[in-house]
Amino acid sequence: MSEDSTADATAGAAAGERGTTDRGVGDRLRSLRAVAQRAFDTVVRTRAYLALALVYGLAVVALPLAGGVGGYLPLVLDLSTPVEVLVPLVAFGFGTWSVLADAASGELDAIRTFPVDRSTYVLGTFLGRAVGLLVAVLAPLVALGVSVPFVREPSTAVFVSHATVDSPTFFARFVALTAAYALVSLALAMAVSSLARSRRAAVAAAVVVALAAVVGVDALVVLGLAQGVVGPDTLAVALGLSPTGAFRGLVLSTATGGIVSTGPPAADVATSLVGLLGWFAVGLAVATLGAWSPGRR
According to the UniProt record, where is the region Disordered (predicted)? Predict the structure, then answer.
């Protein structure tokens, strides 16, 4: 065989491999989109999710309006604690049945007969439910932010003295951090759903994990501080290890304009970012490993 023929054959083989790879990537993306659309449609059709979103929205909107909206920064401070507590609960409501419901109905077995691997199934389910969750969680916040210029009331002295920093930018940061916090909570909820083998077990596990995420790790940090295990130098790092502490630390560091300089210490920013990313990765990894486990058959 001549060198030209060999070169042509090599080029043809390479082109064939690229075509196969391109088709493989395209097929996977189509499968991912189909799974995500299916998960989103499930959220839209389920009235319980709508009811949960309405209850959350009413609570989030009513709390700041009851006390009066003095500006964007007062709004961030009014919302930070309710959002810190309520968002994980809403996320677990959206995610706890994600894998478990498919397994209980037999749909998961049907899905496994298609060329869909476990990572595509979990990621697609996560993306579809994430869209519904983000709409439920962020819509009330956006509505409040838009309403500030129309319902703003005279600010207290501390905010008057910092009037130049009362910018919608800080509220936008708060909304973005809330979105990230919701996605991390959803990933943890899906991990619970993939490991649970019954609705009762899922509810119990969801309650335990949600409580651990909201108050459990922080309580351990306080206990460690009281016992001398956690010192003043490491307190800021320890606080960033929980999803709640990480969210709180990032809000105080980036979305309050430097007004909050007293009170309990906030989590370290770098540790908070690593903490949120770590919990997100762990949640999706556990969900992926558990979804295709033998116990699902």
Answer: 1-24
CA distance 129 to 49: 10
| pLDDT (tens digit per residue) in 187-205 | 999 999 998 888 888 888 8
Q: How far is CA 113 from CA 105, 108, 110, 117, 144, in A?
A: 15, 9, 5, 10, 46
Report domain extents, the chain: 32-296
Residues 21, 18: Cα–Cα separation, whole Å:
5
Query: 77-114 pLDDT, tens per residue?
Result: 889 999 999 999 999 999 999 988 888 888 888 888 88
* Rg of the chain, C-alpha, whole Å: 23
CA dist 22 and 250 (Å) reads 40
| Rounded Cα distance, 237 and 240, in Å | 5
For residue 152, the cross-strand partners are 69
Q: Token pair for residue 249?
A: 């630390």
Amino acid, single-letter form, for residue 118:
R
Q: Provide the residue count of the chain.
A: 297
In sign, the C-alpha dihedral spanning 163, 168, 174, 178 is: positive
Beta bridge partners of 69: 152
Q: What are 157-162's contacts with CB under 8 Å, separation 24+?
A: 158/259, 159/70, 159/71, 159/73, 159/74, 159/259, 162/73, 162/257, 162/258, 162/259
Kindly provide the residue ranges of all beta strands, DSSP E only, lying in 211-294, ordered along the sequence.
none
